[in-house]
Structure formats: C-alpha cells, structure tokens
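Weekly modeling sync, notes
Attendees: S.R. (lead), two postdocs, one rotation student

Agenda item 3: backlog of single-chain predictions. S.R. asked that every request posted to the team notebook include the full sequence so nobody has to chase files. The rotation student volunteered to paste the first one in as an example of the format we agreed on. Action items at the bottom.

Example entry:
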Amino acid sequence: MSAEQESQSIRCLVAKVGLDGHDRGAHVIARAFRDAGFEVIYSGLHNAPDEIVQAAVQEDVNVLGISILSGAHNTLVPKIIDGLKEYDAFEDTLILVGGVVPDEDKAELKEMGVAEVFGPGTPLEETIEFVQENAPQR
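Predicted structure, as returned to the notebook:
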C-alpha cells in the first residue's frame, strides 16, 4: 500500500471537549490532516466526553485528536478513554491530545492510553508523520 493510500484510509475525529471555546488549533490540525489525505471529522465546540465517544464510535475513526486548552485534560480525557473502553473502541483508536498541557501531566496522560501529546508550536509535519506511522489499520 502506498503512503497516499495509507493516508486516505486514515479516518480522524478532531474533537473539542468541555467548555474550551478556543478552536483555532483544532481547525489548523483538521485542515493539515485533510491536506495530508486523511478523512477528517470535526466535532465543533463544547462537547461532553460522551458526545466525543459516540462520534468516535459511530464514525469508526482510527484516530481521535482531542484539542484542549482549558486545563481540564486530567478530568475530561480519562472520561473519553473510559467511554471508548466501554464500546471496545479503545484498542483500535490512536488517541492524541493537542493543546496546553503541563509537562508534569503528559506522562500521566500517556499512562492512561494517550499515544502522544502535542503542544503549541509542534510542526504540523511531525503530527502528520506520527499519525501515519501509528494509526491502527482497518
């Protein structure tokens, strides 16, 4: 399978969770993923963790990118992970977190099952390559 075919088979949900209303980064990454050939679904603003889980399961995504800038990552991300586990979708979903996450919280998120945390200023190419190399194939 060529790199282009692999990219086209990657289905991503870019999700904004909680009360965080800042979505510029989510739009930037969604567009970059689309331009890389990924199929992208954007959740819009102000979603509850359960809504993100439902969208990920219903859309059968390979990748869930959670954009969060509110500081509530230690509360909201575990709820999403638990929801994915309830639907047996956790093992088949690459979970990424993007946004402002203190360094001391990154290890805990990874222990929960987040594959990578991307902070402000991360080159788009780095995120795209990570997804291409790590997204579960269906």
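Discussion: group reviewed the output briefly. The chain is about 45% helix and 20% strand.
Action items: rotation student to repeat for the remaining queue; S.R. to check formatting next week.
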